[in-house]
Amino acid sequence: MGNRNGTSSKDRSVNLDIRNYKLLLNALLIGVITGLLSSIFRLVLARLSTFRTTFQIGQADQLWQDWFWPMLFTFFGIWFSIFLVKKYAPEAAGSGIQEIEGALDGVRAVRWRKVLPIKFFASIFSLSSGLLLGREGPTVQIGANVGKMVEDVFKQSVEEDNPLISTGAASGLASAFNAPFSGIIFVIEEMNGHFKFNFYSLAALMIGAGSADMVVRFLVGSGPILKTTIFTFEDLSGLWLFVVFGLILSFIGIAFNKLLIEALDFFKKIRINPMVIALGIAFVITAVGLYSEDMIGSGYSTIANAYNDSFTLKFLLALFVVRFFLSIMSYGSGVPGGIFTPLITLGVISGMLFGGMAQYFFPDVVQDPAIFGVAGMAGIFASTIRAPLTGLALSVEMTANYELILPLIFTAVTASVCTTMLGNAPIYSILLKRILNKGETAV
User: Fold this and answer.
1) Within the chain, which residues score under 70 in pLDDT?
2) Residue 108 CA neighbour count, 13 Å, CB half
3) Fewer Cβ within 10 Å of end Cβ, the chain: N or C?
4) Could you tell me the maximum CA-CA distance found in the chain, to the nearest angstrom?
5) pLDDT tens across 158-190, in order?
6) How far, in Å, CA of 33 to CA of 248, rounded?
7) Cα 347 → chain centroid
8) What is the pLDDT of residue 442?
9) Counting runs of H as helices and runs of E as strands, what totals does the chain give?
10) Considering just the CA atoms, what is the radius of gyration of the chain in Å?
C-alpha cells in the first residue's frame, strides 16, 4: 500500500539502499583521493626536510653560512605560511581538527575550495621550516575537506554531510601514520559527540581509512612508521610503574593544554608584523637546531635516536623541556600543523627518561626503558587529547608492538582518568570552544 505521496514502503527501501551504496562508493573515492594527496604531501615534506639541513656546513670559518641559509629558509617558510592562512583561509591555521568537529556539529562551514589548496601548500612551508609540528593535523583537515568536496561535486543529500566528512577525517589520519585502525578509532572516540553512528557510516569510515592507507603504502611505503624493537611483556611485577608513569603524564597533559591556549592568546593579542614574528621564531629554531637537530622538527628522527639509546638521561631531560616549549610556540604562532607528532615525541622522550630512572632503581623489574617510550606515546595522547583508545591504537600501529597492549592500557587509562579528575578538558574541545566564544568566522 502506498502513502499519500504515492511512494510505497518498497520504493523507500530501494531508495535507501541506493543511498547507502552511494555512500560506500563515495567513501572509497574519498579514501583514494585523500591517500593520493597525503602521499604527495609526505613525499614533498621528506624531500624538503633534508634540503634544509644541507645548508648547515659545519665549518668554523663559514659559521655565517651555517646561520644565514637555515634561518632564511625557516623564516620564509613560517612567514609565507602565516601569509597564506591569514589572507585566504584563517580556518586552515593549526591542526584544523577542531574545525572538523565544528563542521560535524553544523557550527563551522567547510570551504573546501579555499581550504584544500591553502592547507596543503601552507602546511608544506610550515612543516619543512623546522617548526615542531606534525603532518597529521593537515592531512585530517585535508581529508575532511575532500569529503565535503565529493559531497558537493556529486550533489549528495545533506544527510551525507556528516559521514562523508568523518570518512575524510579518518582517511587523513590513516594516511599520515600508515595507521588505518587508528583513523577509525579516532573518529569514533574523539568525535563521538559529533559523528552520526549507523552501520553504513561506520562501514564508510573503514572503507575510507583502508583505501587511503592502501594508496599511501603503494606510493610511499608500507610497514610501521617507527622502527623500534619488538618487545614482549611477560613479567607483570612492573605494571605498577606504568600506573605511576601515567600519573606523571596526566600532569604533563594539563600543563601542555593550558600553555598551548595561552600561547595562542599571546600571538593573537600582540600587534606585531607577521614578518617580525616569523623572524623571531626563525632565529630561535635556527639557534636551537644548530645546537641539536633533535630539538627541532616534527620528531621522527628524534624518536629513532631516543629508541637507539643515543641520549643520556641529562640530555633527555633537556630535550624534553626544549621540545615541550618549542612545540607550544610552534602551534601558537598560527601556522598550519598538527600536535600529534610533537606530543608523541614528548611521550617517547618522557618514557625513555622515566624508564631509564626506573631501570636504575629497579633493575630486576625494568627489562628495557624503551618499553616506557612506547607507553609514553599512548599516555601523553590520553592526557592531552583525552583519547586513550586512539593513543593505544596509534602506539601499537606505529611501532608494531602488539604485545605491549597490557602496559599501554595501564598507562593510558591512568593518564586519561587522572587528567579528567583534575579538570583537564580535551584539547580540541577547548580549541573549538575558544573559536566559538571569540566569534571568529571564516572570511
Assistant:
1) 1-16, 52-66, 158-161, 194, 438-443
2) 32
3) N
4) 91
5) 666 688 999 999 999 999 999 999 999 999 887
6) 40
7) 13
8) 40
9) 17, 0
10) 22
Confidence (pLDDT) at 141: 96
| 235: its cell numbers | 613479567
In contact, 204 and 196? CB cutoff 8 Å: no
Question: How far apart, in whole angstroms, are the C-alpha atoms of residue 176 and residue 179?
Answer: 8
Cβ(344)–Cβ(384) below 8 Å? no
Q: What is the pLDDT of residue 214?
A: 96
CA-to-CA dists, residue 221 to 124, 177, 208, 216, angstroms:
20, 11, 18, 7
Cβ–Cβ < 8 Å for 148, 347: no
Q: Which residue has the cell 570518512?
A: 167
∠ CA(350), CA(354), CA(357), 5° rounding? 145
Q: Which cell goes with 291?
A: 645546537
| CA–CA distance, 186 with 391 (Å, rounded to integer) | 9
The number of CA neighbours under 13 Å toward the Cβ of 390 is 25
pLDDT (tens digit per residue) in 270-298: 888 889 999 999 999 999 998 899 999 98
Task: Indicate the SS3 state at residue 128.
Answer: coil
| Residue of 57, 75, 45, 102 lying closest to 337 (CA atoms) | 45
* Ramachandran area for residue 326 (φ above 0: left; ψ -120 to 50: alpha; else beta): alpha
Euclidean distance between CA atoms 274 and 283, whole angstroms: 14
- Name the β-bridge partners of 307: none
CA–CA gap between residue 357 and residue 350 (Å, rounded): 11
Q: What is the pLDDT of residues 45-97, one digit of tens each?
A: 988 877 766 655 444 445 566 677 888 889 999 999 999 999 999 999 999 99
Cβ(262)–Cβ(427) under 8 Å?
no
Measured CA to CA, the distance from residue 316 to residue 353 in angstroms comes to 6
Domains of the chain, each with CATH number or no CATH: 9-219 (1.10.3080.10), 236-437 (1.10.3080.10)
